[in-house]
Design goal:
single chain; 399 residues; alpha/beta; Rossmann fold; seven-stranded parallel beta sheet; three-stranded mixed beta sheet; 14 strands; 14% strand; disordered N terminus
Length: 399
């Protein structure tokens, strides 16, 4: 991997040891191995950063995992680096291609769907808003339409964002009943996705079909992310490659959480949908209010943790938009799913740095992901996903 070679070439100093305190999570609200063992699960966006974490977790829980993405994973991406390609049946498709999506759902015959697939980069959405709407809105409608024809599917968790809410002129905490909105193409596409889910929820309910709900989440950070357009991986890439990184709007405030926290919420939500027809249609999964930090604070703290190789400078400051000032009320997730965030932003950043250094030192990123996952009820997770069926490299659908 290029990043590993570069990291070794600049002589990263690291003492082998455990991940930082707070990184390993153990709590009673973790997903149930008894529920997921042997269950057929379709993960859209499986080859991305969060998709790779989700696939590894599901394999640890004993699920039969299928994936559907535009690609089956870039050679240098976490999905490939973590060795997941041989354990997940990957299907190539464009979500905007309704026939391809229907064929994929028909082939996978999933009992549970985790819809992570999206165009989620703000700068890309501004550059090509139409394609963003096609993927995030039409693509979701295609998926839910295919689910209507899939008798096996009983639970669908659709991941959106904390930016679905209509911005306010002052700071506040958003709860699920607040008005939807969207000032940018990305946030508007995700708010529209919420409306698509609400419409299909009624259709599926009338048909006696799958239950569907949305998961509204904040910025997820974690080991293995290699998206240059995101703050934390962009800064780490700059440190590894030896150049200063330009960041925009350092005073903008964001909600930050470790990727394992919202993923735990997605899985718990799917379990609840399977078991309870009265599950509400949307859930917030966000950090504690004190973990709403500025972009500049995160960049500065990451530089402290990494060392002098990580250097950044601020672009010309732009006024904070209304959408920059918010946090999520997670009472519903706590009361109905037993979910709470388990790691503060500082522990999450320390975990990201430890992951990057350990991978650079030659450790298997798949095992680093597995090490970070919460344990459920004392059940020991598999150390590798080797018990999952290796279905090779099937013919792509819609590719």
């Amino acid at each position: 991997m290029e990043a590993v070679i570069l990291a070794r070439s600049i002589g990263i100093c690291w003492q082998r040891g455990a991940l930082p305190p707070g990184f390993r999570m153990t709590d009673s609200s973790s997903p149930s191995p008894a529920f997921w063992a042997g269950r057929r699960v379709l993960v859209t966006g499986h080859s991305g950063f969060k998709g790779a974490w989700a696939c590894r977790w599901l394999l640890e829980l004993g699920a039969e995992v299928w994936g559907a993405s535009r690609t089956r994973g870039a050679p240098g991406g976490l999905f490939r680096r973590a060795g997941l390609a041989g354990h997940v049946t990957g299907l190539e498709l464009e979500l905007a291609d309704g026939e391809a999506v229907a064929a994929a759902v028909g082939q996978a015959r999933p009992e549970v769907v985790l819809h992570l697939g999206a165009q989620a980069i703000e700068s890309v959405a501004r550059r090509d808003p139409r394609a963003t709407f096609e993927t995030n809105v039409l693509g979701l409608a295609n998926l839910l339409d295919a689910v209507r024809a899939a008798p096996e599917t009983r639970a669908v968790t659709v991941v959106t964002t904390d930016r679905v809410y209509a911005p306010r002129p002052t700071e506040g905490v958003y709860q699920e009943e607040d008005a939807l909105g969207g000032q940018t193409p990305y946030s508007a596409s995700k708010a529209a996705a919420e409306l698509v889910v609400a419409a299909y929820r009624d259709l599926l309910g009338a048909d006696g079909g799958a239950r569907v709900a949305t998961a509204r989440t904040s910025n997820a950070i974690g080991g293995g992310d290699d998206a240059r357009n995101r703050l934390v991986p962009g800064l780490l890439r700059g440190a590894i490659e030896g150049h200063r990184v330009r960041i925009g709007s350092p005073d903008a405030r964001r909600c930050w959480q470790h990727v394992a926290d919202p993923l735990r919420g997605y899985l718990r939500l799917a379990e609840r949908l399977w078991e309870r027809a009265d599950t509400p249609g949307s859930f917030n999964f966000g950090p504690r209010p004190e973990d709403v930090r500025t972009v500049g604070w995160v960049a500065g703290r990451l530089a402290e943790l990494w060392g002098p190789q990580l250097d950044w400078y601020a672009a010309a400051q732009t006024p904070a938009r209304q959408a920059d000032l918010f946090a999520l009320n997670t009472t519903r997730a706590r009361e109905l799913l037993g979910w709470t965030t388990t790691m503060d932003v500082d522990a999450a950043l320390r975990a990201v740095v430890a992951f990057a250094r350990r991978e650079a030192a030659g450790e298997d990123p798949g095992e680093l992901v597995a090490e970070a996952l919460p344990r459920s009820g004392g059940a020991a997770a598999q150390s590798t996903p080797s018990s999952a069926p290796n279905r090779g490299d099937p013919r792509p659908v819609g590719g």
